[in-house]
Each structure stands twice: as structure tokens, then as C-alpha cells.
Records
---
Amino acid sequence: MGQNILGGGVNRNNVQRIVKAKAEGSNYIGVGDNLLDFGSANSFLKEDNCGKIFSFNITNGGSSAIKVALSAGGFAAGSSYLDSSNIIAEGTVATDLTCSGTPEKIDALLAYVKANPSRLRAIKIKADNESQLDYPIVYRQINPFTGYIDQKRIPAQYQRSGDNNTKVIELTDINWILGADNLLLTTIGAGRTVVISLVFGASLDTEKGLQKKADEAMANAAALGFSVD
């Protein structure tokens, strides 16, 4: 039988340690927050070291530009918020448009960010032709009460005269979150092939957080001398 939580077997030092272990506070930087997944990092201070990168390999083999949603949140095909964009997927997405993901299939990423809002730290673009860099990357935040807000980045504007390869661009001046209420839209030019890599920081991973909380609860119970069977 386990001890009553108010019983005499409680170790005061262990209780104080548990109370002080809460994540949020004036010194909060994300360390030890069970609900956050930092990948290879452990706090917001080292968020750019998470090592969470997903790449879309996209080819438009047709003679017309094609709109594509790199992240569609919780919105289905045909939603007016998508502006007639095709939702990216593994394989043939639309006539002349084929896509693949790395390191996993695209479906896995879309499902993950829909369920686990994730901070987008950078976007890397590698195109086969500089003309592709004229098409903007649009981040759309939708709020059912106040409407939506767009932020736009045009990759060509990030080209620098001294760059050895002007077909490779990195966008870092973003503070975006991909989740159920956000879209990431772009256009793939006619005949173009492009690799678009999303560099993620922290994710609000509730599934992993639930397991961490359960593990921590069991460890705390054992430290306090309670039976966990």
C-alpha cells in the first residue's frame, strides 16, 4: 500500500525540490519545460541549434507557375485562405507539380505542425534558376475574430553582390510559428526545380510532454516514498 500524501513519510526537502522545479518563472528560458521539444538544444537561448530541418524538393514541369501551400494548418483544399494554392504532399500534387520530403514524407511534417505548433527560425531556398527567387514566401496568420495578417518575404531581395551562388538564399529575419491557424504559401515558376528547407526551433509537443510529465510524476512519487504500483 502507498503512503497517504499527507502522511508522515513525506520528505520535506524532496517536497521543496519538486515545488521549485516548475518551468515558468522570472528566470524562465525553456530548460526543463516538459511541453517543449528543442531537438538537439535545451532552451530558447540555443534554439538555433535544435537541428530540426525539413526539406521540400519541388519540381514544376509545366509551362505555367503553380501556387503551393508549404503548410496548410487546419485548412482543407479549396479554402479561400489558401488563395487557390495546392496543398503540398508527397508525390504528384497537381498536373506537372511533383514533391518529396526529406528526411521523412511530407505528410508527416504537415501532421506534426498541425498538432504541435513549431517556431520557424529560417527558410533556406536553393533554386535551379534565379527567376524562382522572385516569387514571395507568404506567412498568413488567421484569427477567426480579427481576420488574417500576411507577412511577405521576397527571396531575391536577400541576394548579395558578393555571393558565390546567387541561386541559394536564406531567410532569417522571421519570427513565425507553423500550426493549425497559420499558412505558408509560395509559387513555383514554370519549369523550375527548387529545394525549400524549413529550419525549426522549439515545438509545443503535447504528446511528448504528457509522457515526460508521467515519468516525472513517477520519479517524484518514488522520491517521496510513495508506492507507484
---
Amino acid sequence: MIKKLTVKVWRDVMILSLIIGVIPSIVLIKFAPAAIQALCGSVPDSAKAESISNTYVICLFALFFIVIDVLVVINHFTHSVGKKVKRYLAENPGVTMEQLESDFETAEQLEDVWIGRKWTFGESMDYIPVEHDKIVLVYSESWRSKRFETFYLCLGLLDGTVVKTIVREKTLPKFMELYGRYPHILVGNNYIQMFKNNRKALLDIKYRSGQN
């Protein structure tokens, strides 16, 4: 389980690194010598075609994206799949790795989310795994930019925590269908405000009777 999820994570990280890391590095290699030469008081040959101020700006932008790239890699090291699973096991001593592995192997996969009988696994989630007994509400959110719209599957937990992961819009109904099979889980966006503002009343709708 950990290996499979980790491979997916690092595949995504490598693609992202190519986008925000490699190209800025090439740009920096090209323009940094001229910027360093100018800082040392000399006039670089490239000044005839490109102003020194533009060269500085280009180098600063390239450095910015390289720093972002490094921070992304560090974040994935410090918040790895393995560490998240170990944290869950430490907080739940009654659960074993063998149980998680068994549930993962029989889980139904939708995109990059595996929904097992007792747990949900997703490599981009802040918590791995997510225990179904602690899920109160499943709903969706979206974020729109000028050209794109990103959709999130949101798992609202008993303590008010929300675990999110990016999914495709067309897959959301299937997610709702799968989680709707659990007698204690509410699905749909109609209950978002109640989850945020009056979770006790929301639990009375389905969670408490479903758990019993």
C-alpha cells in the first residue's frame, strides 16, 4: 500500500519538478553569469542585447521558481505517505499494518482514491488512511480560475476536520454513491453549513443512528 501510493506521489512530484524546476534552472544557467558579472562591476557582453535590469529580473524569477520546486520536494519528504500511515498507527494502537494492507487490496479505486470497507486511502490527503467510522459528511467543493475549475472531494470528520483531495467533476457522483452506502454518512452539499455551524444537529440526522 505505502509503496503503491508513494510511487504515485513521486511521479506527480517529478512532473511538477520538470515544470517549475528544470526550465527555470536552464534560464538561470543562461542569464546568471551575466548577472554575476554585472554585480562585480563589469559590463557583460549580453548587455548589448538585454538590459542588465531585465537580466536581474529574469534571474530573480528563475530563482523564485527553483525555491518553490525545492520546497515542494521537501514537503513531500516531510509529509510522506509512510509517515502519515505511521502516525495513524501510532494514534490507533488497535489497528495493524496488516489490516490496512488487507483493506487497501480489496478497496475500490476511483481515480487516485481507494475506498475500502473500513478506510479511504489517497496519496494527496493530509491523513492516510481516513477511517470511515469517523466520516460524518461527504461533499464537494470547487475553485475556479480564469481558464480552469478544480473540484475537490471533501470528507467531513467527526471532530470537524475536513480531508480534501482533487478529483474530476464527472467522478463526484460515483464517490457520493459509494459513501452513501454507509448508514452513518451523509452525502451532498446541502449539509455543509450545518456541518460547519451545528455539527451536533447534523450528527442526529444520520450518524448516531447509523453507528448504532
---
Amino acid sequence: MSSLQQTILKIILIITAAVVFLHVPLPLSTGLGTGDFRPYWSSTFLLAHGQDYGDPSKMYYIERTMTEWNGPSTMYAWFAPTGNVALLPFVMFPFARAAQYWFFTNIVIMYCSALLIWRNTNKEHIWLPLVATFGFSKTLLALSFGQVNTLVVLGLALFLFFSERRSTFASGMSLVLTTIKPHLVILTLPLLLLDSARRKEWRALASFAGALIGCTFVLFLLYPRWPFSFWNVVTSGVNIIRETPTLNGLLVIAGEKTWGKWLWVIGLFLAVAGWRHYGKRWDRRTLIDISLIAGIIVSPFGWSYDQVMLLFPMLRVLGWMTNGSLARNHGIAVALVLIITEVITYYQRILSVSDVWFFWTPFVMMAVYWFAWRHRQTDHFVPATQVA
């Protein structure tokens, strides 16, 4: 069979599989992947039909008439309008089926992201990032809720992939996915844009801006007053006091309900200052790892499943464990800490504690990352002549 015939056959098989997937009922448990996807879908449905998705009464009506929501309050779509654009294909289907499609799409997103993040590490342990990703409690939580923070993970993973292939145009476009939930990259995205400017990667910056302009064009085409809708969503979110798993959440518990939301400003100032002094010596993966951990800690918003972003530093540490950068005893110690951390978070989830009590997870990841980083510098194999 010629290469052309093989290509045609593959296309036919993909189309056939897609048609079957779109028409065969999917045996998913009721409610799986629908929790947070409900307001995302409702918001996007309103936008697609030229209506105000920031209007609580309209969201109330859509959620109760089209998504079978019977809760006491209206759910809001806490994401940027770029998320609405990304989810437009899913409003072509009824909510229940769209939620099923999104659930499977999310699995594929996390599968691909894990492999993209791991791609330059030990190929003999390719199973490890998949086990770590789908065993990570925050991944399972994001999947079960139908979250869109997975798109932010994919955006950063694609950015790293295209950056290393020196495809600056594609790397810049990939960053648009991170704007869907900007609080997850509240330090990372500004630093990456500054780093691209320092490296004179103007194509990356131009493609990022161009992709944002393209999304804006779609939004104006569908609903010209979308900025007002988005502003209503933002202001309503800012005014709500939450027990977030961040420093802000701890301050809320302590009784301070205001200025904790602005800690990220101080964090961004310190991050930019640190980047100016030390950024030239950092590779981009390190920049992403450290800024994600710090950003999760100082973010003004967030939920425990947003800690799925910790996959980046976690897989980096696991990579050091498998490629010989860490001594065996240090690798075992790191593995035990990571396993114990996961066991505790699973137990907390069973107890249904407030999200604020997951604040400690990024601090543990910070300590593990620092320990692994510090010891990977000195724990390479030592020639026998240098052994005392």
C-alpha cells in the first residue's frame, strides 16, 4: 500500500471513529464531569446566541432549563472570554452529551500534556508521567468537575514543546490557552512574555497578540457587548470572599478579608526583580516551575483543583530521579514525601474539608523542588579517583 493510500485510510478511520463517538451513547456516571462544566457551557451558550452571559438571571434560566441544575444558587463561569471561544464547539450539543465529550477531551488533554512535559526525560520510564498525572488527586478532581484549568496545563506544555523546537510563532499562540484562567499563571505568563522580549522573540509576542486579537474578533462578532458581561463576572467574583487554598485564604480564616487579594502584586514585583537579576541563568522550564509554585501560593483566587499546575515541577523532580541526577537515597526520600503528600490530600478529600486546608500542598512542592534542585547539582556520578 502506497503512502498516499495509507494516509487516506488513516483519515477515513479517524473520521469513522469520530462519527461513531459522536453518535454512540457514552456510559458515564450521572454527574461525572458536569459540576464546573455547567456554568462554562451555559456562559458559552449565551455568548453563542448573542446574549449577556454576565447576567445572573440569564445564567439562572439556562442552568435550570438546559443543564438540569437544581441547586439553591446560580453558578458563575469563572474564566476569561478566551475560554468561551475555546468551548464554542461544545454548545452545538445538548449539555449532557457536551459534558461527556468534554470529559473525554480532558483526559486526552492531560495525557498529551504529561507526555509533552516529560518528552526530554528518560524514555524508558514513559509510564511514570502518566501514572503520576492520573494518580495526582488534583488531576482527578479537575476531570471529575469538568474543569478548564486543563487547557492552561496544555498551553504551557505546548509552549515548552514549541520553544525547544524554536518554533516561536507556535509557542506564542500556545500561551493564549493560559489566559483562560489567568490566576493560574499570574506570575508565569508575565515572566514568559518578558523573557520572550529579552530573547527578542518578536514572532512569539506577535503571534500571542494576534491570537488574542482573533479571539476578540470572534467575541465581538457573536456579542458586541461582551466586555460588559466579562466585567460583571469579574466584579462579582472579586467581591466574593472565599476560603481559597492560598495565603489569601489563610488571611480570610484569620479575619483579614481584604488586602490578601493583593499579595500577588507584591509577588509579581519580586518575581520581576528576581528575573532581572537571575533570569538569564534560568532555563525556561525552571522559570515555569518556580513561578507556578509561587503563583499558586499568592494567587487571589483559586480552588484546590487549580493545584493541578504543580504537575510541572512534580514531573521535573521525577525526571531528575530517573535520569541519574539524584542519588538513590535522595530519590527515595523525594518519592516518599510525594507519596505521603498525595495520601494526605486524598484523606482530606474524603473528609470534605474546606479548600483552604489544601494551602500546604504548594509549600511541600516548593521544599521538594528546592531539595531536588540543590542535590541534583552535586549528586551526579563521581569518578573513582575523586572518591575519598
---
Amino acid sequence: MESKDAATTPQPSQYALGDIKPEILESVMLLLGHDLRSPMTIVISAMELLISLYEDDPNLIGTVDILRGVLHAANREIRLVNDLLDLRRLELDTYQPNTKDTEMVALLRDVLDTESYALTTKKLKVETTLPQDTPLHANVDPELVERMLRAILDNALKFTTRDDTLRVSIQPEADKIVIRFEDTGRMVQSRFGDSLLKQPPQWEERQAGTRTSVGMGMPFAYRAALAQGGSFSASSDMKTGWTTFRLAFPAVKPS
């Protein structure tokens, strides 16, 4: 007869990532969350150090530009991993946003400033409509929203080419603050619009040539918007060729 201790003691799994869904999820999060991020943090630290040492040397301008490209790619890889992991947490309602009164115009401007390297390298025509003297407040998790904005921008960069146009705007609409990313890149076919935001993986969509998510960034942005009382949508106008990502949060009066 099996002893009580033997029956209650977890037995080693015959599979690398576990036998049941909770075990598999925990293993994947541990693998991705630690093992994939660790090498990237070393690359990021090294690139930041080299750039700081040589960015003022006129003889190394080209080299520093290459280092900035490597740094941007490493930071992007970290974001892709984090968004993929937190998408699952959002789907399971285990991610708790740390919401606070946030000025959204400044947040959006900071994201665009820090992504200026990617925008310049892509050679997009960037048009922005950001209020100068009208603060727009929402009760959101600023770090989470920043990640959402980067994911949306990442998708726009992925599916545009040189000389495409990207419009970024933020404005109040009724009782909401609405942020729009509009571009002339690859469009979202209407029958795949819902799956872009909600259904990974997207093999059929890729075979059909429609716009898909990048590293599950769009499902991440969609779930993160819902978790903060907001909404997120994507659509393309087949007549004009413009694709629009619309992110909205309930507006609040500044305290």
C-alpha cells in the first residue's frame, strides 16, 4: 500500500515543462522570464556603456549608430518577452495594474521621444497631434500604458516601409481620452480584425497576407486596456489605405 507521504509528495515529471497546465505555465514563465531576459540585460548594459564612452567622438559616429541599433534591438527583445508573459497573466486575471492619476500627453510624448531612433531609421513620415497646453488625465498604470504604446508602435513599424506615413494623436472625446496610431502600411483584412487582437497564434492570418501581431503585442495591448477600464481596436479603411489603432481610457479631472 502506498504511504500517505508518498501519495502527497509531488513526483518528478517525465516532461521537461511539467505534466499539467499550471506546471507548464509556471515553467514557461520561469524559462522565458529569467533565462531569455538575462543574456539581453548583459547586451543592453554593454551597449549603453559603449555608447556613453564613444558618442562624442566624431570619428566613431557610424560605429555609435550601429551600437544604438543593437541597443534598440535588445530592448525590443526584452519587451517582446515581457509582453508575451504578461499577456497570459492578463488572460488569467492575475495581473493587477498599479493605477494612478496619469497625464497622458506627456506619457505619449516620452514614448515617441525614446522611439525616435527607430522612427528615424525606418524613414517614416511622422505626423503628431499632441496638445501643448491641455493636460489630459486618466487613471491608469503608466508603466503598463507605456508598454502598450510601444507594442502598438512596434506593430506600425513592422508593417510599414520607407516613406509610409504614421500619424499619432491624442485628444479628448466625450468622457474619454483617445490615442490613435494611423499608418499607410499593410492593412488588416476585415475578416481577421478580431483575431489580430484576441487570438494567438495567427498562422492563417499570416498566410492570407493580412497584418498580424508582433510577439503577441496586440493581444497584450487589448487585454491591458480592458484591465484598466479602457478599450482597444484596430481596423483598416480599404478605400484610403489607412490602418488605425484606437486606444481609449475614461478621462478624469486632474486632482
